[in-house]
Design goal:
Keywords: Ribonucleoprotein, Ribosomal protein. One of its GO terms (molecular function) is structural constituent of ribosome. InterPro entries: Ribosomal_eL36, Ribosomal_eL36_sf. The structure is a single chain. The protein has helices at about 35-45, 50-60, 65-80, 80-105. By secondary structure, the protein is mostly helical. The longest helix is centred in the C-terminal third of the chain and has 24 residues, at about 80-105.
Length: about 110
């Protein structure tokens, strides 16, 4: 709410103009940049999947209805946290879908 210019009341205080503030670097922390994304993509392309990631991929390919839960539990044991396990599961699922699309197209 805007200040009223009065000394008492809900909106007490001197009337001022709101100052536009520059965005702080801390507000963009953790956001993925173009360069980092490209570097990670190239590194993944060159190095491929690690053994535990290949195992997760195999679980996704062969597993039935409970594959998601088994993959999650396996990833959580390897990576140590709930959030990382979910992210890894989605990452490997995306890789699997890319591979299937590539096979269907070729």
């Amino acid at each position: 709410m805007a200040k009223s210019g009065l000394a008492k009341g809900a909106n007490k205080g001197h009337i001022t103009d709101a100052k536009e503030r520059a965005a702080r670097p801390s507000q963009s922390k953790g956001r993925l940049g173009k360069r980092t994304a490209l570097c990670r993509e190239i590194a993944r392309e060159v190095s491929g999947l690690s053994p535990y990631e290949r195992r997760i991929l195999d679980m996704i390919k062969t597993g039935g209805s409970s594959a998601d839960k088994r993959v999650y539990k396996f990833a959580k044991r390897r990576l140590g946290s709930h959030k990382r396990a979910l992210a890894k599961r989605e990452d490997i699922k995306a890789i699997n879908s890319k591979m299937r699309a590539k096979q269907a197209g070729a």
